[in-house]
Amino acid sequence: MTDSYRSEMLRALTGELSASEREAFERALATDDALRVEWERLQKVSSLLQESRADSFRPFFAARVAQRIKSQREESLTDALVWLFRPLAPVAIAVVAFLALSNWNERELIGDDPSFLAAIFAAVPATPEAAYVLDM
Question: Using an 8 Å Cβ cutoff, are 79 and 67 in contact?
Fold first, then answer.
């Protein structure tokens, strides 16, 4: 099959052939089996394309897309970080509880009467002696 027949088939499919060209094309289809098979395939493809046209490109398509985008909730960076670290929250709570309890058990190292927060964080009271030790 030559390129001229292909272009003629496309013109016949879109209805661009004159009456004489159409008669000549139909005679060629009647005599050439390969041309007829190719014509039937082209008609099937064309009908499939016609059936599957996107309905979404009706008028005001861009306006509908813009409206859909506006209606969707915008996610911020903090929402993304919360979603990312949410599975780690129980582990972080367990670690903080473990450290607080282990420091609470060693509160006698802090001094005479430590406050609750000083006991949990194992905070050494700020004294001149402690500052001298830290300076060395």
Answer: no
- HEC string for the chain: CCHHHHHHHHHHHHCCCCHHHHHHHHHHHHHCHHHHHHHHHHHHHHHHHHHCCCHHHCCCHHHHHHHHHHHCCCCCHHHHHHHHHHHHHHHHHHHHHHHHHHHHHCHHHCCCCCCHHHHHCCCCCCCHHHHHHHHC
Compute the distance between CA of residue 47 and CA of residue 67 in angstroms, rounded to an integer: 33
**Inter-axis angle of helices 19-31 and 33-51, to 10 degrees?**
120
Break the chain into its structural domains and give their ranges. Answer: 3-54, 87-135
Tokens of 19: 């009456």
Residue 30 is which amino acid? A
Answer yes or no: pTM beyond 0.70: no
Average pLDDT, the chain: 78
Quick: pLDDT tens for 86-129: 999 999 999 988 887 777 666 665 555 556 666 666 666 667 77
